[in-house]
Amino acid sequence: MHFLALLSPGPDFFLIVRTALLHGWRRASGICAGVALANGLFIALAWAGLSAVQPDSMLYTALQWGGCGYLAWLGMRLVRSPGTPVTVQAPGAADALAPGWPQALRMGLINALLNPKNALSYASLFTLLASSPGYLQAICGVWMVCAVLGWDLLVAAAAGHPVVMRRFARHVGRLERATGAVLLALAAGMAINALR
């Protein structure tokens, strides 16, 4: 179930791919680390048995609307973007337009924390593991964080490969607008779901 959730593209996936295509996989690795850190926080909360993030709780509603607002803000920025220039550089070369690694880490962390589906999926997974010994739950939690980080780094490495970056260089404006449109659609879906 966890692996299927990893394969389904969501806001984290689009943010990682966009950053990797525009600035390379090393910068996107910051977003990957932020996403993994947020997943680790949700896993720790689920493991500790804190069920504050239930579908009918105020915290869940706040996360849902916060995530909706963040995705809409990010989507609008990308839709309005004239197209960030792509610079395929030698490994280790600095890109002045790219977000720094700490900024990318923060973006990934915020993006993943504001996705209530992460909290719910880990809460439901750890409900299934509730009768398992603590060490097994800990192993599963560490494995899940490592799986998220590994998968996201693989996606970033594939999208940030210089050959892929060169191919997309001519289409940056369209790529950013398409990513923005997807994020706006995800925000609208979250809003519709929140209003039910």
How is this structure best summarized?
Helices cover 75% and strands 0% of the residues. The protein has nine helices and no strands.
What does this molecule look like?
The protein is mainly alpha-helical. It is 75% helix and 0% strand. The longest helix is centred in the C-terminal third of the chain and has 26 residues, at 134-159. Mean pLDDT is 77; it is low at 1-5 and 89-94.
Keywords:
about 200 residues; mainly alpha
Summarize the amount of helix as a percent range: over 70%
Question: What is the end-to-end distance?
Answer: 26 Å
Please count the helical segments: 9
Regions with little confidence, pLDDT below 50 for 5+ residues: 1-5, 89-94
Q: What's the SSE pattern?
A: HHHHHHHHH
Give the strand tally. Answer: 0
Strand content: under 5%
Mean pLDDT: 77
* C-alpha-based Rg, rounded: 17 Å
Q: Which structural class should the secondary elements be placed in?
A: mainly alpha
The biggest beta sheet reads: none
Broad shape: globular
Ordered list of secondary-structure elements with their pairings:
Elements: H1 2-7, H2 11-23, H3 25-47, H4 58-79, H5 101-113, H6 116-128, H7 134-159, H8 162-168, H9 172-195
